[in-house]
Design brief:
By secondary structure, the chain is α+β, with helices and mostly antiparallel strands. The protein has two domains: 3-204, Roll (Endonuclease I-creI); 226-313, no CATH class. The protein has helices spanning 3-12, 19-33, 53-67, 93-102, 127-141, 160-171, 193-202, 206-256, 264-275, 281-287, 294-313, and strands at residues 34-38, 44-50, 72-78, 83-90, 142-144, 153-157, 178-182, 185-190. Strand 7 (178-182) and strand 8 form a beta hairpin. Helix 2 (19-33) crosses helix 3 (53-67). It is rod-shaped. The model is unreliable at 109-116 (pLDDT under 50).
Length: 319
Amino acid sequence: MSFSANVKEELSNQQNQARHCQIAELAALIGFCGIITVNSRSRYGLKIHTENKAVARKVFTLIEKTFNIEAGISIRRNMEKHSTSYSIVVKAHEDALRILQAVKLVDESRDGFEEIEVMSPIVTQQTCCKRAFLRGAFLAAGSMSDPKKSYHFEIVCSARKMAVRIQELMCSFMMDAKIVQRKKVYVVYLKEGAQIVDMLNIMEAHISLMELENVRILKEMRNTVNRKVNCETANINKTVSAAVKQLEDITYLRDKVGLEKLPEGLEDMALMRLSHPDATLKELGELLSPPVGKSGVNHRLRKIGELADKVRQNQGGLL
């Protein structure tokens, strides 16, 4: 299974003990993948459709445990697409109405029980209920990328109003959730690994959280090693290039004017570099008599380079 499917499998086994949290989670599941039917006699029915077996199991369990209602379930297999869809159905008017009233998807105070907000603030008043609602929203319409490849967490909403509500819920936990429109839907998403870890903690997917943290640690270690290797490689290349340039300048001066024409300190430095082409600046300084520090060696070699450039400009003339 994909990482996203593993997260949903874990969340589907997460059972809230408090009834208000069960209602909040079910409200999200119905709001995102439920269909409310009303016939000509104003009789309600409820169907929750999903292609994820774990989600179907969670919906069925919530309805049974929270309301003591045994919902019907139908399974349809699409042989062409090699997919299976599940529908949890509550046909009885009284049962459907009781669920819809509890999750605040219909208003019992109005004649005919008119539909109201997709997500009532009453359902998510408490912090634990906010967690439960976000868990239900992810189960119904969320997905995650494989953290080994990239960090991406999203919940797809059919309406902008719902996306804004989800964003507000996520931001109440200090998440930096953003919204983007993708064709006809709105996507609430997170892109930072640390925030996705926090989001898994909010939804109480602790096993998946640890797996993601392990991936993050390994990736960070690799990135640190790569940065150090790249830095060291760059330093080596820089050192080698500088040494090659120094040897070219010294050889040019030797052939054009003779190293004996150089000041004593520079002559000694030039001879030492010629005899030790692979030595570092520190090693060259220690070989001189008396020893010279790294900055002193660098200064002398730079002076040699300037003299070589001066001779080149004079076309091989005397210093």
